[in-house]
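User: Can you predict the 3D structure for this chain?
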Amino acid sequence: MRTMRTTGPVLAVAAWSALCFWAGLTSAREPALKVDVLLSTSKTVIGEPLRYPTEKPAKVTAAIVTVPTGATTGWHSHGVPLFAYILEGELKVDYGPQGERVYKKGDALIEAVNLPHDGTNTGSLPAKVLAVFIGAEGLKNTFKTPAPDRH
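Assistant: Here is the predicted structure, written as structure tokens:
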């Protein structure tokens, strides 16, 4: 006949073994988290210091923008910081006096703020861009602008 004195340690060891076995199964089924940093910067693509709008309550807007092959975005500016990640395709962006840059699938950037620019899909597929605007209530994320004077 077993007494409580000998049964307690046996049950404790069995419980610990079962817990370790279960934990091993759980971690085997749930792979370790992997984090790939897409971008870490304090400046836009043209070197402007990154500044968040603070005069109104914050508002974040996320969108997927699709630019058909050969199409352009038209000259526009952003009134708030914009994180962009190229999901598919290729865009050539003309920043006027700041030059041109080509962005391809997998590129991440903080777009120019308050500088007119125009994007053109120069690839053979539609370009898809994840656009995350870090804005504020009442502020426009994007607005049409005339092309800059190149002289």
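Residues 6-14 have pLDDT under 50 and may be disordered. The first strand starts at residue 58 and ends at 67.
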